[in-house]
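Dear all,

This email documents one entry for the complex benchmark we are building for the journal club exercise. For each entry we list the sequence lines for every component of the assembly. Then comes the predicted three-dimensional structure of the complex as a token string, followed by one or two observations. Please use this as the template for your own entries, and keep the labels exactly as they appear.
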Amino acid sequence: RKEVEQDPGPFNVPEGATVAFNCTYSNSASQSFFWYRQDCRKEPKLLMSVYSSGNEDGRFTAQLNRASQYISLLIRDSKLSDSATYLCVVNFNNDMRFGAGTRLTVKP
Amino acid sequence: GAVVSQHPSWVICKSGTSVKIECRSLDFQATTMFWYRQFPKQSLMLMATSNEGSKATYEQGVEKDKFLINHASLTLSTLTVTSAHPEDSSFYICSARSGVSNYGYTFGSGTRLTVV
């Protein structure tokens, strides 16, 4: 079993759609969780951290369920500029493990 | 915010030559830096963890004699791909944390290596 598993995608959605990505992790002692965004041929950039209480940043909402070892990212009112690969990242003792990423394409 | 500078951005080299990639933390001291490799349409794979003043810790399957890592100062880590072969062609990315928190990590802009 992979340490971090994500929806394989790709997700192709129209502008304005709501889309959700899921991620599961295997290490129950993982300490912190993040969603990163990676554009083609670029470095990953931090989108948001994920907290147990859930957190929201504009159109983006992240949720963490420690009991189920599950993380999610919800994007509302998708924009063309949201097209990218979204990486789920799990940290244990400063060892960051990346999911394979889920590719999102938002179409006009 | 924290900035990590990585260069070169891209490099083409001949088989058998060595290539050095630099990763610098510009406005903070990075006690730990990480080197990743990413093949097309795949996730980032951690190659090694670089600690200032000590030997790097390599992930299983990564040849330490082929991928030489030096972290001689708190702001600079280098990765040297020795005797490069076409199968080493990949996107290499470094990241760093300041040692203050685990608030996500800052990545360099990556180096696209093509070995011909």
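Observations: The first strand of chain B starts at residue 4 and ends at 7. The mean pLDDT of chain B is 89.
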